Automatic annotation (TrEMBL):
It comes from Amphritea atlantica. Residues 24-279 form the EAL domain. The chain holds residues 347 to 629 of 629 of the full protein. It comes from the Bacteria. This is EAL domain-containing protein. The lineage of its organism: Bacteria, Pseudomonadati, Pseudomonadota, Gammaproteobacteria, Oceanospirillales.
Length: 283
């Protein structure tokens, strides 16, 4: 009988649990290889002014090429990177490479929109993070006002002195902050005034439910919009997939929109030609 015998502990895992562990282990190894061999890449999702539909920003999204081929994206590998502490290296890699691209994009097109970069909540416990960020930004000579960090609502822990300090250090550098996936956490709305944030990104599940028969969910987007206006926060709706959703968001005065209806995340060269004015046609 294996009971109580540490060496046979694996027997207590179900097949499914064992597979899950194996998968996590494989993903962790793939992420280490990606860091060593530079298999990470970035794609760019355009963000549009809700009324004029001009491109006003780009959300930077990471891909691990060796995992992408297996259909494994950041939704799956970022949590594993967080557990294994690889996320710190990945976040810095993303910031460094995004800054290099931002400089290139500005030189090629004069783009003055924001670069919105997702940052793991893990960084809010990492006192070294703001100084590292400053070093990277300075080394590229980028204006910090063009950078926004997106942090999921659930990671914003305000009662923790350390995370508050880190957030305000980032903001003091001139970087703006967005609460990502807003509405999925448990922020008391009255607390919003205390958040060192500039922007709310309405989680795409709410946009998806805009015309749902469930009135409470249907109304969420408008409630968040009103609230954000009250507190002077920019509102970005993510996950816009239909014309009807876009028109509703225009009607209620949402600021920015992004989603498959407007543009997929694009690789660098496609994004560049989307933003470049068509030189030969211009008069
Ligand atoms: P997020 O920041 O909420 O990013 C939006 C995700 O929703 C992206 O998936 C994007 O492709 C997808 N999306 C955007 N518009 C639509 C739409 O209209 N319909 C649908 N169905 N999906 C849409 P992606 O690239 O797989 O990223 C997933 C999550 O992984 C991100 O969620 C973010 O939390 C995290 N992530 C992505 N890149 C990075 C990164 O560089 N660093 C860190 N720390 N996290 C990242
Ligand atoms: Mg995001
Ligand atoms: Mg989001
Ligand atoms: Mg999301």
């Amino acid at each position: 009988q294996a009971k109580g015998n540490g060496r046979n502990r694996l027997e207590y895992f179900s097949d499914e649990q064992a597979r899950e562990l194996r998968d996590q282990d494989l993903i962790e190894r793939a992420l280490r290889v990606s860091l060593q061999q530079n298999y990470f890449s970035l794609v760019y999702m355009p963000m549009f002014d809700c009324q004029t539909l001009e491109i006003v920003g780009l959300e930077v999204l990471v891909r691990a090429e060796n995992l992408q081929r297996l259909g494994i994206g950041p939704d799956r590998f970022i949590p594993i990177a967080e557990k294994t502490n690889l996320i710190k290296e990945i976040d810095l890699w993303v910031i460094d490479n995004a800054m290099a691209r931002l400089v290139e994009l500005q030189a090629a097109t004069g783009f003055m929109g924001k670069f919105c970069i997702n940052i793991s909540g893990v960084e809010l416990c990492n006192e070294l993070f703001p100084a590292k960020v400053k070093e990277i930004i300075d080394s590229h000579g980028v204006d910090p006002c063009l950078i926004e960090f997106e942090i999921t609502e659930t990671a914003f822990v305000l009662d923790d002195i350390k995370s508050r300090t880190i957030l305000s250090e980032l903001r003091n550098l001139g970087i703006s902050l967005a609460l990502d996936d807003f509405g999925t956490g448990f922020t008391a709305f009255s607390q919003l005034i205390n958040y060192p944030a500039d922007c709310l990104k309405i989680d795409r599940s709410f946009v998806n439910d805009l015309f749902s028969v469930d009135v409470a969910r249907h109304k969420m987007v408008r409630i968040i919009e009103d609230l954000a206006e009250l507190y002077g926060l920019r509102v970005v709706a993510e996950g816009v997939e239909t014309k009807e959703q876009l028109e509703y968001l225009q009607e209620i005065g949402c600021d920015w929109v992004q989603g498959y209806y407007l543009s997929l995340p694009l690789p660098w060269h496609e994004m560049l030609s989307l933003i470049s004015p068509p030189a030969s046609v211009a008069k």
